[in-house]
């Protein structure tokens, strides 16, 4: 007869965290129901990869000092919490807020992501000075991948930014470095849906 | 050649080049270089003999196909073969996986550690708390109230079934 021990309790916390880094955040959080030991284990996983989380939840977990946040939301009027844009530990941020008929408006009060290296944005309508905030608030940014964005037409900041982003790739918006060092964002968005009215 | 001795006093002779896949052993050998032959004996007291056997099998398979080479120039067929082999290797009972994780952690063998952890995560995936509790013998010491209300309300969205 085999002895019945909770084998997993013999593993140190770092290993449990490592195990949880292989599953989605949803699955990792679901382990909180297993036992007291597991209740808050997921909290230490540095990678948050969530489909359709609630804004309130996202607001809370941004305080857990994650290194990666990757969010996919397709519900209308999703209010992306400001805390995501002031998460000091963040190295990679992916915001795919892709509602089929409406852009999701994102206009954080401020942006302060000192360690952010890669940023991917999809389906957003950005606030007036988002780009300006972005370039001044993300000194470590190496890769910007904007995809299907609605930039405020009047936003002058995009053309006046004096900052070089080393790598920017996008099928929809091409960011290229001009001789003067300015970054120019050229809109070439062509996402059209036959059944939905034009969005802008 | 170096000798590993397990907790149940079994000896395992392994080529140094093979055992070097353990960063812990590599460092120990490096520290003792140039000393007596007896210093090439390494006690791995925290693991029983079943585990060194498995670890050495893993080492040999990977020694024949070093990872740098594996990634850069391995043919698709060979990669598939290795993947199949690994799947079979990790397809073992949960106690063995547990011991493998601990061994890979203390011997510092990153690929073995990751492989075993990923396998455990596969076991946890797509299962209810009851099922996982049964497999892993985790004792659920929550009260009914905690289980039904408190914990689900903490992270409500993960308990929603969005496709229902």
From TrEMBL, chain A:
It holds the Pfam family LRR_At5g56370. InterPro entries: F-box-like_dom_sf (IPR036047), F-box_AtFBL13-like (IPR053781), F-box_dom (IPR001810), FBL13/AtMIF1-like (IPR050232), LRR_dom_sf (IPR032675), LRR_FXL15/At3g58940/PEG3-like (IPR055411). CDD domains: F-box_AtFBL13-like. Residues 5-54 form the F-box domain. This is F-box domain-containing protein. It comes from Rhynchospora breviuscula. The lineage of its organism: Eukaryota, Viridiplantae, Streptophyta, Embryophyta, Tracheophyta.
From TrEMBL, chain B:
Pathway: Protein modification; protein ubiquitination. Belongs to the SKP1 family. Keywords: Ubl conjugation pathway. The keyword NADP does not apply. Residues 1-60 form the SKP1 component POZ domain. Involved in ubiquitination and subsequent proteasomal degradation of target proteins. Together with CUL1, RBX1 and a F-box protein, it forms a SCF E3 ubiquitin ligase complex. The functional specificity of this complex depends on the type of F-box protein. In the SCF complex, it serves as an adapter that links the F-box protein to CUL1. This is SKP1-like protein. The lineage of its organism: Eukaryota, Viridiplantae, Streptophyta, Embryophyta, Tracheophyta. PANTHER family: SKP1. The keyword Acetylation does not apply. It comes from Rhynchospora breviuscula.
